[in-house]
C-alpha cells in the first residue's frame, strides 16, 4: 500500500477550504481586505471605547447621541483596525492620568452640558442623588470609575484625602525594653474596656498643705484685645513619686492599706484604653505591699496635646522636614506642662489672711533649704476598698490626691475644693490641630463646640484630669483656655477664658466610666500578686514566708507605642537604679577631667 503524502491530501481538498491567504474577491481593495460598516450593525454593548478622534474626546455624551447609544458610530476605529501590533509596543500599556482636570473649561467654556442627579435626559437638573457629573467623562469610563481623585461616585477613592502621602507613624517606646526582662502578661485594650468593678467612695486618711482662694475674675470672658497674659511665677511645687513619699511609707508601716499610689500615676492606668502615646509605670512589690511608681522624667509627668486627634502632631523626621519644631509632640508636651504649672499659680489670690491651713504642713517642703515660696496645694491621702467577695482579706488602696484652690459657695456658705487645669491652643491652621476652632473668635459664641472638639482630640488627657478630680473628691474642675500670643512662637501666651464643671457631670459627658478604671487597677494588682519567682519552687516551705516579707520584686507596665496593648514585664530589682548610678559616675568623671584641664 502506497503512503499518502500531505501534499496529496491538500490537493484533494476544495479550494474554499484550503489553507493560506484567501484569493482576491469582491471584498478586497488592491489586495487589502476591508470590513463593511453600517449604522445598523449592533455590537451589543453601550459604547465602543476603542473609538478615537477629537470629537469623541471633547463631545462626551453630547457628541454620542443618546438616541443611538446602542449603535456603533459609522467608521469609528478604522485607522487602527488593521494596524500591525508590534510586540511590547507602548499601546499595550494603559496610563492613568493623575493630573487634575478642569471642570469649568470642559463644561462651560466649550458649550458642554452638565447633568445633575437622575433628571430628564438632555436637560440640566439640580439636586438629585448623583451629585456632580463631569462633562466628557461618562459614568462608565474606567478612568473616572476607579481613579477619580475627588472620590465622587460609588467606586471613587475609599480612603482619606491624600492618605497615600501620609507617613507611617512609628513611635518610640517610652522605655527601652531590655533582653533580660521577662514578659508576664499582654493585654489589649478591648479586653480592658470590658472590665467592671463597683468601688465605694473613698475616705480621707490624712490631709497636708494649705490652699488659697480662686480668683473669680478669671471666669468673666475677657474683652477683645484685653486678654490677660500668662505669667511665669516662681513657686515651690512638687510632684513626688510614690516610693519617695514619706507619708505613704508611714501609712504602709501602720498597715493602713496594701496598695499605694499617686493620683497622676493611677489615673494613667485607669484611663489606659484612651491612650495613644507610649507610657510606662514601675511597680514594686515588697512583701505583701505594692507601690505604683514612676521613673525620673517619665512621660506620665508631661501633658500631651491632641493625642487622640485623627491627624495628631508629627515629629520633624516623620513629616519629612515640613513640620515646625515648636509643633512637634515633644515640644507641645513641654509647652502644655509649662502652661498648666503657671496657670494654676496665676488663678489664685495669694493672701495670708485668706489662707486655709490643713492639719499637717506640706510634707515635701524644707524651709531651711528652699528659698521660693510654696504654691497653693493640698495633699489628701484617701483610702479606697478594692475587695471582692471571694477575697479572704480586704484589699485597700491609698492614693495621694491633690487640690489646687478653694472657692466660696455663696448659696451654701461653704468652701468648695477646686482642681485647676489648662487647655492650650498652638495653631488651629497647623498640622495636628485636629480641626479645632479659632478660640479667639469662637470661644465666647461657640463654647460647647470648642469643648466638644477638645474632648475628641484630647480624650485621654481630659479623662485623666477628671479621674484625678473625682479621686480627690473635688467639687469643681476649672478648665482654662490658653492660646499663643503669636502662633509661630511658643514664648508668650494669653488666657482667653475659664470654664467650670462638676467632675461627675463632666465624666458622664465624655463617657468616662470610673468603674472600668477600678477594674483595670484590680486586674493589674492581681497579676502582680500572682507573679511567682523562679526560685520559689526550690525554696523550703518553712523559709519561704520569712524571705517573702523582705523580698523586693520590680515590674514595669508598658504601653506599646504603636498598638493598643499594655505589657507587664518582670525586671531585675536594680533595673533603673543602675542607670542613675551610671549617669552620676559619668558626670563625676567629666567634672574631674575638666578640673584637671
Automatic annotation (TrEMBL):
Here the segments flagged for biased composition (Low complexity) are 115-124
Query: Where is this protein localized, as stated in its record?
Result: Cytoplasm
Signal peptide limits: none
Q: Which InterPro entries match?
A: eIF3d
| Principal place of residence | cytoplasm
Residues covered by region (RNA gate) = 299-313
Q: Which Pfam families match?
A: eIF-3_zeta (PF05091)
Q: Which family does it belong to?
A: Belongs to the eIF-3 subunit D family.
Q: What is known of its domains?
A: The RNA gate region regulates mRNA cap recognition to prevent promiscuous mRNA-binding before assembly of eif3d into the full eukaryotic translation initiation factor 3 (eIF-3) complex.
Question: What's the name of the protein?
Answer: Eukaryotic translation initiation factor 3 subunit D
| Organism for this UniProt entry | Elaphomyces granulatus
Amino acid at each position: 500500500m502506497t503512503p499518502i503524502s500531505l501534499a496529496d491530501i491538500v490537493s484533494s481538498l476544495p479550494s474554499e477550504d484550503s489553507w493560506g491567504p484567501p484569493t482576491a474577491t469582491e471584498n478586497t481593495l488592491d489586495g487589502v481586505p476591508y470590513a463593511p460598516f453600517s449604522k445598523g450593525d449592533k455590537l451589543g454593548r453601550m459604547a465602543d471605547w476603542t473609538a478615537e478622534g477629537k470629537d469623541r474626546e471633547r463631545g462626551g455624551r453630547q457628541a454620542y447621541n443618546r438616541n443611538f447609544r446602542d449603535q456603533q458610530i459609522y467608521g469609528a476605529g478604522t485607522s487602527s483596525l488593521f494596524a500591525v501590533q508590534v510586540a511590547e509596543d507602548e499601546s499595550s500599556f494603559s496610563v492613568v492620568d493623575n493630573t487634575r482636570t478642569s471642570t469649568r473649561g470642559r463644561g462651560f467654556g466649550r458649550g458642554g452640558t452638565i447633568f445633575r442627579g437622575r433628571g430628564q435626559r438632555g436637560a440640566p437638573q439640580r439636586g438629585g442623588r448623583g451629585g456632580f457629573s463631569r462633562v466628557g467623562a461618562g459614568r462608565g469610563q474606567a478612568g473616572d470609575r476607579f481613579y477619580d481623585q475627588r472620590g465622587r461616585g460609588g467606586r471613587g477613592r475609599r480612603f482619606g484625602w491624600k492618605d497615600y502621602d501620609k507617613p507611617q507613624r512609628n513611635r518610640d517606646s517610652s522605655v527601652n525594653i531590655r533582653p533580660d526582662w521577662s514578659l508576664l502578661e499582654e493585654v489589649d485594650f478591648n479586653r480592658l474596656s470590658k472590665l467592671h468593678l463597683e468601688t465605694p467612695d473613698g475616705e480621707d486618711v490624712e490631709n497636708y498643705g494649705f490652699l488659697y482662694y480662686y480668683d473669680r475674675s478669671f471666669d468673666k470672658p475677657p474683652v477683645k484685645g484685653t486678654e490677660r497674659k500668662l505669667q511665669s511665677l516662681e513657686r515651690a511645687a512638687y510632684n513626688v513619686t510614690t516610693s519617695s513619699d514619706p507619708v505613704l511609707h508611714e501609712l504602709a508601716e501602720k498597715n493602713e492599706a496594701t496598695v499605694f499610689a499617686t493620683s497622676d500615676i493611677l489615673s494613667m492606668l485607669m484611663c489606659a484604653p484612651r491612650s495613644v502615646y507610649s507610657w510606662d509605670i514601675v511597680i514594686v512589690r515588697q512583701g505583701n505591699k505594692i507601690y505604683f511608681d514612676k521613673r525620673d522624667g517619665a512621660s506620665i509627668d508631661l501633658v500631651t496635646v491632641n493625642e487622640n486627634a485623627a491627624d495628631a502632631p508629627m515629629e520633624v523626621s516623620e513629616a519629612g522636614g515640613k513640620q515646625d519644631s515648636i509643633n512637634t509632640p515633644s515640644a507641645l508636651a513641654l509647652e502644655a506642662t509649662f502652661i498648666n504649672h503657671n496657670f494654676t499659680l496665676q488663678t489664685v489670690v495669694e493672701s495670708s489672711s485668706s489662707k486655709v491651713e490643713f492639719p499637717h504642713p506640706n510634707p515635701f517642703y524644707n524651709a531651711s533649704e528652699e528659698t521660693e515660696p510654696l504654691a497653693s496645694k493640698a495633699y489628701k491621702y484617701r483610702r479606697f476598698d478594692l475587695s471582692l467577695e471571694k477575697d479572704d482579706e480586704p484589699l485597700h488602696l491609698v492614693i495621694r490626691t491633690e487640690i489646687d484652690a478653694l472657692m466660696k459657695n455663696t448659696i451654701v456658705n461653704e468652701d468648695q475644693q477646686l482642681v485647676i487645669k489648662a487647655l492650650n491652643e498652638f495653631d488651629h491652621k497647623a498640622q495636628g490641630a485636629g480641626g479645632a476652632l479659632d478660640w479667639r473668635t469662637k470661644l465666647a459664641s461657640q463654647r460647647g463646640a470648642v469643648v466638644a472638639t477638645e474632648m475628641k482630640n484630647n480624650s485621654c488627657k481630659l479623662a485623666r484630669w477628671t479621674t484625678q478630680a473625682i479621686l480627690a473628691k473635688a467639687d469643681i474642675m476649672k478648665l482654662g483656655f490658653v492660646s499663643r500670643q503669636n502662633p509661630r512662637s511658643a514664648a508668650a501666651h494669653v488666657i482667653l477664658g475659664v470654664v467650670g464643671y462638676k467632675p461627675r457631670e463632666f465624666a458622664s459627658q465624655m463617657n468616662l466610666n470610673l468603674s472600668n478604671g477600678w477594674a483595670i487597677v484590680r486586674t493589674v494588682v492581681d497579676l502582680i500578686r500572682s507573679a511567682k519567682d523562679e526560685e520559689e519552687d526550690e525554696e523550703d516551705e518553712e523559709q519561704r514566708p520569712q524571705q517573702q516579707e523582705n523580698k523586693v520584686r520590680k515590674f514595669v507596665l508598658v504601653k506599646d507605642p504603636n498598638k493598643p496593648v499594655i505589657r507587664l514585664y518582670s525586671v531585675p530589682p536594680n533595673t533603673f537604679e543602675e542607670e542613675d548610678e551610671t549617669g552620676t559616675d559619668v558626670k563625676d568623671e567629666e567634672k574631674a577631667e575638666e578640673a584637671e584641664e
